[in-house]
Here is the input.
Amino acid sequence: MYSLDILESVLARNGPAGVKQPLHVEAAQSLAGLAEFAAVRWSWWARHSVDLVRALPGGDIVGLRGPDDLLVAEVFEHGAVHCVPPPGAAWQSGSAFMLFQERFKTVLVGAGADTRFAHALLGALNEMASNAVEYASAPLCPIATYEVRDGSWCFSVTDVGCGVLRTLRRNPSYTNLSDDVDALRLAVQDGISATASPTRGYGFTHVFRALVNRMCAIRLRTVGARAAWSGRSPAAHLLGLSPAPVRDGFHVAVSGRIGST
Here is the structure.
């Protein structure tokens, strides 16, 4: 199976000719992985008119249908994928996404998670989704996923927008930023945002707080940088960051075990 990091390294070195076989959904291993595969696919299609993921189910799943199809929802055996509607979207679109989030909470509790933790994860998902629609400036709507199976949970938010570096450079304090890794390292810290407001920039704080004393794994990916971490009680300074091949947008995936503390 392909891992996304290996796939992108192969593409960076050899282009699409380096991909020796069709990419199947099973290679994604999760709905969060499926959404990230779609982001890789979109980035290469947008930049090079090359379609890499020829075996992605439905062909245009996870946001590749276009920005006007806001009610798109793909339901799988253990979870779901849903477009994140922009501010001011039709009432039906907002309601559909709210129901998607509530189903995540309901499934978590049904699988054995305590209600307070399920509510905290829902808040973390909502924070990441709100960030994506506010800052991504993407040609397609962001995509959220959740998955609960075999005693584990995962949620993700993926967009194909401008990425963290360009977002932070909207703030006059960060116009000198020029490196994606430095931008990502800064973005996960308390109070750092594209605005100058002292009350903004706490989206990742909500994620970290939801996972205090919990075993979990986190993956972040933006343009030319990635971050990964696994263990108990994540924090901004614990994330391991590294350069990565350039692709559009931002991806956050968080996963863990139900009842794991």
Remarks:
- Confidence is low (pLDDT under 50) at residues 55-71.
- The CA atoms of residues 220 and 252 lie 5 Å apart.
